[in-house]
Amino acid sequence: MLHKLLVRFTLLLLLVSNTAIATDNAAARMKYTSVNITPNSVTEATATEKNVAERILYIAEDHTMLPADIAKEAEQLLQLSKQKNWLKNEVMAAAAKASMLSYMEDIPEALSLINRYLPIAQTNHYKSTEIRLRLAYLTASDAMGQSDEALQQIQHLLDLIPTISDQTQIGRVYLSIAEYQYAQRDFGESLTYMQKAYQLFAASDHKVKLSDTLNALANLYNALGDRQSAISYYQQALAMKQELKDDYSTAVIAYNLGTTYSQDRQFDLAKQTLALTIELTEKTKDDVGTALAQMGIAGIALKQGKTAKAIELFSIAKSSFEQIGVARGCFQATLGLHDAFYQTQQYQRAREQLEDLQQLAQQLDLDDFYAKVSKREADNAAIKGDFEQAYIKLLSFHEQTVDKYEQEKQGNIQQLKVRFDTEIAQQQNQLLQKQNQVKQLQIEQQSNQRLVLILAVLVGGIMLFYQFRNRQFYRNLAMKDSLTSAANRRAIISSGKQKCACETNSTTVVLVDLDNFKSINDTYGHDTGDEVLIAFAHACRQTMRKHDEFGRYGGEEWLLLLDRASEQDVIAVMRRIHNTLNKQALNGYPKDKVINFSCGVAVNPAHESHRLDTLINLADERLYQAKQSGRNAIGLTDQVVKIYQS
Prior knowledge:
Elements: H1 8-18, H2 26-34, H3 49-61, H4 67-84, H5 87-103, H6 107-123, H7 127-143, H8 147-160, H9 167-183, H10 187-203, H11 207-223, H12 227-243, H13 247-263, H14 267-283, H15 287-303, H16 307-324, H17 327-343, H18 347-364, H19 367-384, H20 387-400, H21 406-410, H22 412-444, H23 448-479, H24 489-501, E1 507-514, H25 517-524, H26 526-543, E2 549-554, E3 557-563, H27 567-583, E4 597-604, H28 612-628, E5 633-635, E6 640-642
Parallel strand pairs: 4-5
Antiparallel strand pairs: 1-3, 1-4, 2-3, 5-6
EC number: 2.7.7.65
Keywords: Membrane, Signal, TPR repeat, Transmembrane, Transmembrane helix
Cofactor: Mg(2+)
């Protein structure tokens, strides 16, 4: 579905932009996109064919208006144009209204307008308006789950592109197709069309659409598990929207950034950014946006173990969504309430929320929602002791959440990401170079000699920046674990080899394995298992010394490299990590259950040089001894020590 609630803000930007495709009146488009002129609202007494066309274009371009307000004024302009027999304006207004109705999921009325006015736009060769109507049709078809109809509209749009001279308009078509493919989880196609859109917007320095594309790109990277890149692109998009002084769109990006900070367990930044979202959505009277941001803060409270606060905020959000009539928002808020009650062992209240979830899932009829309900039904059956039913529901959950795109994520998608990220860096450098050239022309009037010198310095600086940016990008891409943002196996082994080759300092190698991790996945689900891995990485960052290093060695195994650390130091470090790990509230994992791990230790003394693989093998033997002793232990040179004493 194109309008999945979790990316609602991103898609809102796109759909508002879809109504903003240039009319066939190019002069009017240039007038109101190149200068800050606001055409006044028109009445029957003041209306002319020209100022009505200008007003339709303006409301379609205005990101600060709410969709409902755009639809309302578009209807007034439609009726006025119809009364005056201004056919072109009538079709333009119908397209603007249909776009907003499709976004708001008033599908029957949207389709009624599209079916009536699309043939008129085709017959009269209103190409721009035809494209707006087809984009609205794409949105409506996807909202109804009619993938065949949606693909037909995409083909119609692609066929129209050769007839379009406005490159920005073509970029909007590409971005719409990219968003549709993203919603269908066809990430490769989505990234391909996103790249095409970015090229066109960068060429025209269209900051509104560049920021929309960066926001959409960040959403895609988020879906691929690359949160660090997602955060970077959200930050760039947010800066652009703030520069444009667009409160509505700034709230859009702020929400996306805030929820990503929360997923990355950067809770302070998440709360600050979501608070900004609420401030802006209240200012623009966007009730849906306010409820979404409240739900985001509730999710943080739940992760931090503040269940009373989470229940309060989820309840407020659920009530808001019920009043507004947004079923997806209501589902997500109900899901949060269920998990909060379940986490605090209020099982009866959790079951009440589960009944609401079952009804909402049937209403929404989406695989993602059925999967989430199946997981909660399994939990509920297990609490009742009906383990056969729990197994059936859990099996259903796993079947519904199989990721058939996993190979593509690791292969073709990664290549596309590298290519697109590199291109963005190049485009940004080209824009910087253009700006610098303008500055140099001013300097030329004063001194040609100074101009040559300054240009040489700038070109050299840009080249160095470009080389450094790409070098850093490729290095980070190759050396980070996408789930936890910790060093991956390749990176931590590389660091370990360097440390072991240094004879001036001793290096202690610690091989860690999370105890009973398979059981955690089987009992609570892979999402909770991922939360445990992320929490372990977070605990290491919080407790280890700055010059020590850690990385994900594989699966639930971790490799730690400690400088100048005795075995007693290792015991202290591992106990601190254990304490920090278990202070974190994990979504889906019982608060009263302790997460344990075992480890093996091997020391490379100063003034000696052992191969890293030799030390890892020795640490692995001692890890085995720790496991044999009953887990939750550290295998040292001549003893096994418990980490956590219950």
